[in-house]
Amino acid sequence: MKSVLLATVAAAALALPAHAQEAQEDSGEIVVTGQRAQQERAIDLKRDAIGVIDVAAADEIGRLPDRNVAEVVERLPGVGVTYDQGEGRYVAVRGVPSDLNNYTVNGIEVGNPDGTTRSLPLDVISGQLLNRVEIAKAKTADMDGQGIGGSINLVTQTAFDFDKPFNLLLNGQVGYQELNKKAPVRGDASVAGRFGSDEQFGLMLGMSYSDRTYASYGLYPDDWRTVAGAARGGLPTNIKYTDYSLHRERIGATGSLDWRPSDDHQFYVRGIWSKFTEDEYRQRYRLDFATAALVGTPAFTMNPDGLTGTVTGTANVGTGAGTGPERRQDLRQEYKEKSILAGMVGGSSTFGAIKADWTIARVHNEVYEPNQLWQFRCNPGTVDFDFTEKVFSAKPRTECATSQLNFRQYTEQLESGEEDIWQGRLDLTWTLDGLDAGSFVKAGAKFRATDKSFDAANDTWTRGSSANRFTLQQFGLAGDTVSVYPRNGDTPYSNGPTIDIDAIRTFTAANLSSAMFVKDAATSLSNATLNDMNIDEDVTALYAMANLRFGVVTVTPGLRYEHTGGTITGFRLETPLGGSASVVPDSRDIGYNDWLPSLIVRVDATPEVVVRLAYTKSMGRPNYNQLSPGGNLSYEPGTLPGTFEGSYSAGNPDLKPYRAHNLDGSLEWYFQRGGLVSIGAFAKFIDNPIFTNAYSMTNVTFAGRQYDVLGFSQPLNADKGEIYGIEVAYQQQFTFLPGLLSGFGVELNATLTDSSLDLPNGRSSTFPSQSKYLYGAQLFYQKGIVEASVAYHNTGYSLLSVAVAGTAEQDQYNDDLRRLDAKFSIAVLPNVTLFAEAQNLTDEPTRQYQWNRDHTGWVTQNERYGRTFYAGVSAKF
């Protein structure tokens, strides 16, 4: 790894541009339009920062057809994004999973509406109304301690971000989607103005909206394992493929009221609201053809090629039973609603050499997610399978008829959660006149109080007795057969007979209390208990830092102290042998302290070259569900009188947070206005990584009972892990070229990362979400009335989940994801621009697989979304 990193550094150094130019004078404008100006602004923010940051700034956010904040920051160095249903959602920074980042709006922690983790789904927020997105990778002591990967800060617009006193920005577009021929729409509008005798007041209001109904096709085999004679080394138990229809709506608003009575005093009220809804309809075909009960029996035949074969069986008739392979048809209707509302009031006042900054903020997050699932099953008889292609096929010789598909299960799920966060911070900065300009001492305090609740229910009904069983045919519940295309141009997979959603809803509502549906009370109670929790988490922070400039050298030492405390309540489900389950609430206090030192040294070697060296310590708190003391306890009498044997799965309120010692070094050459070459290396030494572990204890007392043997499954802290990497970035505007060629520019970045993680069972692994290779390239053009750009980005394969209690054969991975997008615009009037966009031009699927990089043939997911095209108009006045 070290030799590869050194070779990368050397190659980047040799690639430094040959056409360095003098830096241009700053125009003084805070936000201006155009690709060139925004690239220059982002580079200036990076250059002026004390720590290590990367920035995507205003019009740069709209330069490419990114749908949300996750896809905006994906184009920055060291950032990998996990996609869900074709849109970027979770962000990993420098190989660190998304739940170990910190997420803020204007420096205020924003929390998370998405269930019980700390991974903020960034597809909730549109990027169109932001001034910029900042990712801090080496943080100073005045920043939150949470964020081992980085701190992602969303900066909203204000009226003082514009050079003109009045600004009106409008954008509207309509699209075309390749798979379902639908027309998505997007639009945003913002108005910003300064008023008063000295333009001391500023008001900015903005709204954004997007509406998209689209389709995706997916293939999802499960549970691959080694099978002798199989050309891929193994087989999955089944093949599943789906026809998804999704409706996603995203609506957001921002506002800012600012008062700047003088240069020494500024006050503001700001807010952001975003709501994301998704209505998902899914028909899933599943065929269990290679289960452990079939492989190795006379019914299962693998041909000598190891790729094809046959599984024999007997088809069922009506509500009767057959033998051999089993076929399922599932219909799921799911609705998701997530919202973020953040408001803040603050100000800044200067009194001589002392400056005071203060903020008080309130954040309210919500999630609401009901869904319904119906399942029917049959035995189709003989099945043929073919693994010649990576996206393989398996199908019955005779598909089940509607009269063979028997009702098996119905579930109603309802998950909801709320999060309320109060925050306040005060920062005091003393300017040091005895040192070079820019020297200061800074101290401050912050308090955050979080109240989070989550409630989950999933009632389950199964089939009735033989006399009360029914099929799709009996009550007219069948829907049309549909075609599924997991790969472009392939022969389609046939998904049918399907379940008619209107018919099954009406039938279920009329008959749910009848003998045809039997409620599974034990499962329903378990589902309504184990994931529920309430959390009160308070964080108190104090810090002190200095920024000391000595000529070309700036030294920034700092120390931050954070106390995390609170109470978490879960619910334990106790089930004695032959008895009824009971729900037992369990509350635990949590508390720990963290001292987080930092030291950053900046050397301005020349007016164009900046060197940074940094040591920082950061932390990552456990996810809320990992801390919950609730769980499932099942037990029965033991071998000795008065003792028991049992099993217990739960969270662990005694978990320690992740703690990381971080080393950073970078060399940055700002060789012209809008030009940058940077090389950065980083290392993270991480203590207390968290994994779910399974173990047994003997002769133990638990919950008031004595157990001969008690099996535990809960998250535990492992020992340590390490992440190493190097980032290389190059940006240049080719203004030195003649004529029309002077409009071109390029932006390149690449990140090489490696990691190691010691697991509790003695295995070693990489960190989840750590991609070995991340790289991207953008070619843009701006000349006269024309702007254009094309961008390619590759997120390399990464570990999705590790089987701590199993073997490496059970580990899950995300495969490489490649994205090619383009945009073209032309100014038809001085203030009006027409544009066209294209997304996913290569029709790239998202793919997951099981085991390791040498076993990508063990595909567990292959989702295809097709291409999307937009045309629109934007206006600025």
From TrEMBL:
Primary location class: membrane
Domain of life: Bacteria
Membrane topology: Multi-pass membrane protein
TonB-dependent receptor-like beta-barrel domain: residues covered: 412-841
Domain TonB-dependent receptor plug as annotated: residue spans: 46-150
Matches recorded under InterPro entries: Beta-barrel_TonB (IPR000531), Beta-barrel_TonB_sf (IPR036942), Plug_dom (IPR012910), Plug_dom_sf (IPR037066), TonB-dep_rcpt-like (IPR039426), TonB_rcpt_bac (IPR010104)
UniProt keyword annotation of Chloroplast present: no
Compartments in which it is found: Cell outer membrane
CDD domains, A to Z: ligand_gated_channel
Secretion signal, residue range per the UniProt entry: 1-20
Keyword Transmembrane included in the entry's annotation: yes
Keywords from the named record: Cell outer membrane, Membrane, Receptor, Signal, TonB box, Transmembrane, Transmembrane beta strand, Transport
Family, similarity comment: Belongs to the TonB-dependent receptor family.
The protein's name: TonB-dependent receptor
Organism: Sphingomonas canadensis
